[in-house]
Amino acid sequence: MERQRLIVAVDFGTTYSGVAFCHSTQDGLRDSEVVSTWVNNGVAPKTPTEIRYFDGKDPLWGAEASLPCERRQAKDTAPVYSRFKLLLDPTIYSGVYESRPKPWSVRRRLEDLRIEDSASIKLPPLKSAIDVSSDYLKLLYKDLMENRLRKRYPDTLDITPIEFVFTIPAIWSHKAQEGTRYAAKAAGFCSRTSDTLSLVSEPEAAAMFVLQAMREKNFSRISAQKTTLKRGENFVICDCGGGTVDLISYEVEEEYPKFMLKESVMGTGAKCGSSYIDAAFKDFLLEKLGPGCKDEGWFQKLIESGSTFMRTFDSIKRSFGQTTNDIWFLELGAEVPDNEEAGIVDNELEFNANDLKALFDPIVDNIIQLIRDQVKIIQSKQTSEAAPTIFLVGGFGESQYLYKRMVEWAGQQNPPLVVVNPTES
Questions:
Q1: Which residues lie closer than 8 Å to 242 by C-beta, 6 or more apart?
Q2: For labeling, which of 133, 139, 219, 345 is most exposed (least CB within 10 Å)?
Q3: Is residue 225 part of a domain?
């Protein structure tokens, strides 16, 4: 008889991280538990992948790291470190695809933006990306073991092996995979001799979720657009995160007695996640305010991770495509000369829907190109006339603007494609 164990999935993301777990005796999706409450972040499925260091005391992590009150207590001397995960694999600056030139005058290619943005990700003195990742994961591990699993399984945790499963980008190099594994183990994962750790690509993890829903005949739980997938049909998983976008395609090999899949197109991806919209926004700000402010202290505080200004922009970014607002006024937090042509009046920057669209579109164009290539390979190989279904998942996959653009593109294909935005991905 197989020994009972706990299975813990860790989504260590570029911008947000999450955890889910279940006991090996439990039954499928309905019994899995997603951590949905975090320190100082209320009810949320994930917590920010951010950390702040202090002399003589423990770091703050997650939502606590960027609390404005904590910044005041630290007198702004302790920076917030974020997006350090991307530096685990600095070789994937590009994802093969170049975007169209941006509408504003800088007109740099997305590839140039990727390179400069990766170079701008800050690390603490004398610490590597693996060190910072390990420090963050150590705090997550402590919270998981003490505040989640210990309370959930008080009598059996010490004698129950844990199988930790970390998700990684499909395009992660072998070096980055080993860096992720090393950081996790240094953080305490597998510090108990009975525990194990494995890695699975992010789109594969999403495909497993879809497969399980089909096996449980519970497909409607995740999809309102399509009720089932049949034998011979293909589907593309497009996992859009904060740093990377990862894809993989599968064919339904069997429906009965249980659903079985086979890979039809290998995993691909690129660095074109939602955080590159933030990078493009900072580029946009420099054009409006002038390149001379780039190294000024007030500007660096304005655009730092967790600042009120960037949190406001993040809220605007998340609601884009599902709100009637088409103009916003962002407080710059400094004495800036009026420039009506640039939209700057009374220390506020006017920012409209066309500006936001110009930030989104190069990223969205890259994502659609990645999907187009997967679909092209499927159609060149499949014998069925059924069009492949596209599953749009991940944090950035929740963007209504991205979803609407993708649906518009999919509807123009011959035959038209269905885009599914799962409700629980």
A1: 13, 14, 15, 16, 49, 83, 273, 274, 275, 395, 396
A2: 345
A3: no
Locate 27 and state its tokens: 């039954």
Q: Are 210 and 391 in contact (CB under 8 A)?
A: yes
Strands 16-23 and 33-34, how do they pair?
antiparallel
Residue with tokens 């910044």: 71
- Taking only the tens place, the pLDDT of each residue in 112-169 is 545 455 567 889 999 999 999 999 999 999 999 999 999 999 999 999 999 999 999 9
Q: Give the structural domain span for 100.
A: 6-201
At a CB cut-off of 8 Å and minimum separation 6, what does 146 contact? Answer: none
Number of domains in the chain: 1
Contact 402/321 with Cβ under 8 angstroms?
Answer: yes
Instruction: Kindly report, residue by residue over 181-223, the tens digit of the pLDDT.
Output: 999 999 999 999 999 999 999 888 888 877 776 666 555 555 5
For residue 137, being part of any structural domain is answered with yes
Rg (CA), the chain: 22
Comparing C-alpha atoms, which of 95, 68, 92 is closest to residue 80?
A: 68
Are 113 and 71 spatial neighbours (Cβ–Cβ below 8 Å)? no
Residues 314-363: tens digit of each pLDDT: 999 999 988 777 899 999 877 888 888 888 889 889 999 999 999 999 99
The single residue listed with the structure tokens 């917030």 is 80
Q: From CA 16, how far away is CA 36, in angstroms rounded?
A: 13
> Could you tell me which of 356, 314, 307, 315 has the C-alpha nearest to residue 334?
307
The two tokens of residue 148 are 């989640």
Which of 239, 240, 55, 35 has its CA nearest to residue 140? Answer: 35
- Nearest in space to 394 (alpha carbons), one of 15, 8, 126, 4: 15
Determine the Cα–Cα distance for residues 407 and 78; give it in Å rounded to an integer. Answer: 43
**Residue 17 sits in a domain of what CATH number?**
3.30.420.40
Amino acid, single-letter form, for residue 95: G
> Is 351 inside any structural domain?
no
Peptide bond into 291 cis (omega under 30): no
Backbone angles phi, psi at 395, to 5 degrees: -60, -50
Per DSSP, the three-state class of 254 is strand
CB 168 within 8 A of CB 177: yes
Q: Which two tokens stand for residue 219?
A: 């497909």
Rounded Cα distance, 338 and 349, in Å:
10
End-to-end alpha carbon distance in the chain = 32
